[in-house]
Amino acid sequence: MSRFDKIEPNALFKALESATPADTLPSTGKLLDVVRFNEDGLLPAIAQQYDTGEVLMMAWMNREALEETLTTQRVCYYSRSRQKLWRKGETSGQQQQLKTAALDCDGDTLLLKVDQTGPACHTGRRSCFYISLDAHKALISSVPLIDPEALYGKK
Protein backbone atom coordinates (compact mmCIF):
# COMPACT_ATOMS: atom_id res chain seq x y z
CA MET A 1 0.00 0.00 0.00
CA SER A 2 1.19 3.48 -0.88
CA ARG A 3 1.05 6.50 1.41
CA PHE A 4 -0.87 8.15 -1.44
CA ASP A 5 -3.68 5.58 -1.37
CA LYS A 6 -5.24 7.28 1.67
CA ILE A 7 -5.33 10.75 0.09
CA GLU A 8 -8.61 12.20 -1.14
CA PRO A 9 -8.78 12.05 -4.95
CA ASN A 10 -9.07 15.83 -5.36
CA ALA A 11 -5.85 16.28 -3.35
CA LEU A 12 -3.76 13.56 -5.00
CA PHE A 13 -1.80 15.69 -7.47
CA LYS A 14 -1.02 18.22 -4.73
CA ALA A 15 0.25 15.38 -2.54
CA LEU A 16 2.38 14.02 -5.39
CA GLU A 17 4.37 17.28 -5.35
CA SER A 18 6.36 15.85 -2.42
CA ALA A 19 6.81 12.40 -3.98
CA THR A 20 10.23 10.98 -4.77
CA PRO A 21 11.29 8.26 -7.22
CA ALA A 22 11.49 5.88 -4.23
CA ASP A 23 7.77 6.30 -3.43
CA THR A 24 5.18 3.73 -4.46
CA LEU A 25 2.43 5.52 -6.34
CA PRO A 26 -1.20 4.58 -6.84
CA SER A 27 -1.97 2.45 -9.89
CA THR A 28 -2.30 4.06 -13.30
CA GLY A 29 -6.04 3.42 -13.17
CA LYS A 30 -6.36 5.33 -9.88
CA LEU A 31 -4.33 8.21 -11.29
CA LEU A 32 -6.49 8.31 -14.42
CA ASP A 33 -9.54 8.52 -12.17
CA VAL A 34 -8.29 11.91 -10.93
CA VAL A 35 -6.68 13.25 -14.12
CA ARG A 36 -8.18 16.64 -14.92
CA PHE A 37 -9.88 15.97 -18.22
CA ASN A 38 -11.67 19.10 -19.47
CA GLU A 39 -15.45 19.54 -19.62
CA ASP A 40 -15.48 17.54 -22.88
CA GLY A 41 -13.58 14.67 -21.25
CA LEU A 42 -10.37 15.55 -23.07
CA LEU A 43 -6.75 16.06 -22.07
CA PRO A 44 -4.16 17.95 -24.15
CA ALA A 45 -1.32 15.66 -25.24
CA ILE A 46 1.99 17.00 -26.55
CA ALA A 47 3.99 14.62 -28.75
CA GLN A 48 7.77 15.01 -28.66
CA GLN A 49 10.32 12.98 -30.62
CA TYR A 50 11.97 10.87 -27.92
CA ASP A 51 15.57 11.03 -29.15
CA THR A 52 15.83 14.62 -30.42
CA GLY A 53 13.40 16.48 -28.18
CA GLU A 54 11.65 18.00 -31.21
CA VAL A 55 8.06 18.97 -30.38
CA LEU A 56 5.94 17.39 -33.10
CA MET A 57 2.31 18.16 -32.36
CA MET A 58 -0.42 18.69 -29.81
CA ALA A 59 -3.67 16.76 -29.93
CA TRP A 60 -6.40 15.63 -27.55
CA MET A 61 -6.95 12.34 -25.74
CA ASN A 62 -9.93 11.04 -23.87
CA ARG A 63 -9.45 8.33 -21.27
CA GLU A 64 -10.12 5.57 -23.80
CA ALA A 65 -7.44 6.92 -26.18
CA LEU A 66 -4.95 7.25 -23.33
CA GLU A 67 -5.62 3.74 -22.06
CA GLU A 68 -5.30 2.31 -25.58
CA THR A 69 -2.02 4.18 -26.08
CA LEU A 70 -0.59 2.87 -22.80
CA THR A 71 -1.72 -0.68 -23.59
CA THR A 72 -0.67 -0.92 -27.25
CA GLN A 73 2.27 1.54 -27.25
CA ARG A 74 0.85 2.94 -30.50
CA VAL A 75 -0.41 6.49 -30.00
CA CYS A 76 -4.15 7.02 -30.27
CA TYR A 77 -5.81 10.42 -29.94
CA TYR A 78 -9.39 11.61 -29.91
CA SER A 79 -10.47 13.53 -33.00
CA ARG A 80 -12.77 16.38 -32.00
CA SER A 81 -13.84 16.99 -35.60
CA ARG A 82 -14.73 13.34 -36.24
CA GLN A 83 -15.87 12.65 -32.67
CA LYS A 84 -14.00 9.34 -32.53
CA LEU A 85 -10.69 7.74 -31.70
CA TRP A 86 -7.88 8.59 -34.11
CA ARG A 87 -5.01 6.17 -34.28
CA LYS A 88 -2.12 8.31 -35.48
CA GLY A 89 -1.14 7.17 -38.95
CA GLU A 90 -4.24 5.10 -39.67
CA THR A 91 -4.71 6.81 -43.04
CA SER A 92 -1.25 8.27 -43.71
CA GLY A 93 0.95 5.49 -42.33
CA GLN A 94 2.85 8.10 -40.29
CA GLN A 95 2.52 6.36 -36.93
CA GLN A 96 3.79 7.24 -33.47
CA GLN A 97 5.19 4.52 -31.24
CA LEU A 98 5.05 5.46 -27.57
CA LYS A 99 8.33 5.50 -25.67
CA THR A 100 7.13 7.23 -22.47
CA ALA A 101 4.08 9.07 -21.18
CA ALA A 102 4.08 11.57 -18.32
CA LEU A 103 1.45 13.71 -16.66
CA ASP A 104 2.27 17.25 -15.62
CA CYS A 105 2.18 18.33 -11.98
CA ASP A 106 -1.49 19.37 -12.15
CA GLY A 107 -2.68 16.24 -13.91
CA ASP A 108 -4.14 18.25 -16.78
CA THR A 109 -1.58 17.83 -19.60
CA LEU A 110 0.22 14.80 -20.99
CA LEU A 111 3.68 14.63 -22.54
CA LEU A 112 4.20 11.73 -24.92
CA LYS A 113 7.72 10.88 -26.01
CA VAL A 114 7.29 9.04 -29.27
CA ASP A 115 9.16 7.60 -32.22
CA GLN A 116 7.48 9.32 -35.16
CA THR A 117 7.47 7.67 -38.58
CA GLY A 118 7.86 10.45 -41.19
CA PRO A 119 5.95 13.71 -40.84
CA ALA A 120 3.71 14.28 -37.83
CA CYS A 121 1.71 17.11 -39.40
CA HIS A 122 -1.16 16.67 -41.85
CA THR A 123 0.60 19.30 -44.02
CA GLY A 124 3.39 16.77 -44.66
CA ARG A 125 5.83 18.59 -42.38
CA ARG A 126 7.81 16.87 -39.66
CA SER A 127 6.26 19.11 -36.96
CA CYS A 128 2.97 20.99 -36.72
CA PHE A 129 4.91 23.95 -35.29
CA TYR A 130 6.23 25.50 -38.50
CA ILE A 131 4.79 29.04 -38.36
CA SER A 132 7.46 31.06 -36.56
CA LEU A 133 6.46 34.33 -34.95
CA ASP A 134 8.27 37.37 -33.69
CA ALA A 135 6.96 40.79 -32.66
CA HIS A 136 6.71 42.01 -36.28
CA LYS A 137 6.24 39.12 -38.67
CA ALA A 138 5.57 35.45 -39.19
CA LEU A 139 7.73 33.06 -41.20
CA ILE A 140 7.33 29.50 -42.44
CA SER A 141 10.23 27.57 -40.94
CA SER A 142 9.97 24.27 -42.82
CA VAL A 143 8.74 22.72 -46.02
CA PRO A 144 6.65 19.57 -46.36
CA LEU A 145 8.62 16.32 -46.43
CA ILE A 146 5.76 14.64 -48.27
CA ASP A 147 2.96 16.15 -50.35
CA PRO A 148 -0.22 15.90 -48.25
CA GLU A 149 -2.10 14.54 -51.27
CA ALA A 150 0.36 11.63 -51.35
CA LEU A 151 -0.41 10.97 -47.66
CA TYR A 152 -4.16 11.34 -47.71
CA GLY A 153 -5.29 11.47 -51.32
CA LYS A 154 -7.20 14.39 -52.82
CA LYS A 155 -9.69 16.04 -50.51
UniProtKB/TrEMBL annotation:
Enzyme nomenclature, EC number: 3.5.4.19
Highest rank taxon of the organism: Bacteria
Residue ranges that the Swiss-Prot or TrEMBL entry lists as coiled coil: none
The Phosphoribosyl-AMP cyclohydrolase domain, residue ranges: 57-130
Reaction(s) catalysed by this chain, per the record, are:
1-(5-phospho-beta-D-ribosyl)-ATP + H2O = 1-(5-phospho-beta-D-ribosyl)-5'-AMP + diphosphate + H(+); 1-(5-phospho-beta-D-ribosyl)-5'-AMP + H2O = 1-(5-phospho-beta-D-ribosyl)-5-[(5-phospho-beta-D-ribosylamino)methylideneamino]imidazole-4-carboxamide
Q: Which residues bind Mg(2+)?
A: 104, 106, 108
Chain residues that bind Zn(2+): 105, 121, 128
Assigned GO CC terms: cytoplasm
- Any Gene Ontology biological process: L-histidine biosynthetic process
Answer whether the UniProt record assigns the keyword Protease to this protein: no
Give compartment(s). Cytoplasm
Q: A GO molecular function for this record? A: magnesium ion binding
Q: In which pathway does it act?
A: Amino-acid biosynthesis; L-histidine biosynthesis; L-histidine from 5-phospho-alpha-D-ribose 1-diphosphate: step 2/9; Amino-acid biosynthesis; L-histidine biosynthesis; L-histidine from 5-phospho-alpha-D-ribose 1-diphosphate: step 3/9
Cofactors required: Zn(2+); Mg(2+)
User: What family does this chain come from, according to its entry?
Assistant: Belongs to the PRA-CH family. In the N-terminal section; belongs to the PRA-CH family.
- What's its job? Catalyzes the hydrolysis of the adenine ring of phosphoribosyl-AMP.
Q: How is this protein named in the record?
A: Phosphoribosyl-AMP cyclohydrolase
**Natural source organism:** Vreelandella nigrificans
List the gene name: hisI
